[in-house]
Amino acid sequence: MQKKSLTLLGVVLAWIIILSFLFVQSQNTEMTLAESIAETKKEQQKIEALLTKIQQTLDQKDYGEIGLTFSFEGRLLTVQVKNQAFLDQNEKKLKSLINDIVKEKKMDAINIQFEAFNTDSAMSEEDKKLNELIHEVSKITSESMNENGYSINAMMIEPKTSNPSIDIRIDGTKEYYDKVKDDIQQLVSNAVSSNTKINFEVKITRRTENDIREEKWQPIFSAIREETDKKFDEYRGFAYSFHPEPLQIVIKTDLRESKWAWNSNKKAEQIEKYVHEIIELKSKELSVEELPYEVIIRGKDNKRIN
What we know:
The chain is an alpha/beta fold and about 300 residues long. Helix content is about 55%, strand content about 20%. The strands form three sheets. Strands 1-2-3 form a three-stranded mixed β-sheet. Helix 3 packs across helix 4 and helix 5 packs across helix 6. The two termini are about 50 Å apart. About 5% of the residues have low confidence.
């Protein structure tokens, strides 16, 4: 009897040790992931400071209008200049200036590419008039709504068609939207037509709960892209869809499915587990409501492998 009790006690202790080990491993994984996310955020802040410094330096040196965009994938800085003639004359100087600022900031080297746009061609009189009309209609719409206590979430103006239109999106509940949409429609329509002598069709929509939910999840999607790319060499892309429900999170990989599928399946399981951990960590950090979702891992041939 004593022997049986000792055996049972040994089994219990063994399970306690195993569970403790798994708990510690889980905690270490979460800490590592949290550290990785913090590192990514720090790097993003460095890049933002770098782009600000580059733009300020270009402005001080009077290079004119130059656009800057940065892709973390490949650490690629794209410099957009007004035309090919300007690029031919200034490419070497611009590249040297940017590399000097990168060194000054004590950052890892970045890749630089240039794009030239032909902005010298004269804008047609018709296009100039359309641009002026869009600016005027936008100003009239914003002012008339603000004066009457309404705010705009987004606005799109289409002046070119035979039936010119203004699309306005507002915030608020469905009840609020139903209450104010006709008033806003009439208000904007009258203000624009009386000032421009053009009858625009005014359409009012609202930012729905689904729109708000999707916006709140964007930082989580960004973290999934960034952290999965950092962790797994097999990562090659990301997608998501709220429709149909549940939310589908798709990770595209270079994994190949074969008759010896154990390795690829194991890696797919690791990736799926990591994505779950990212979602859990970021959801807590951002206080975003939990949603039903599934993680889909696709292989090189785009077939699901998890």
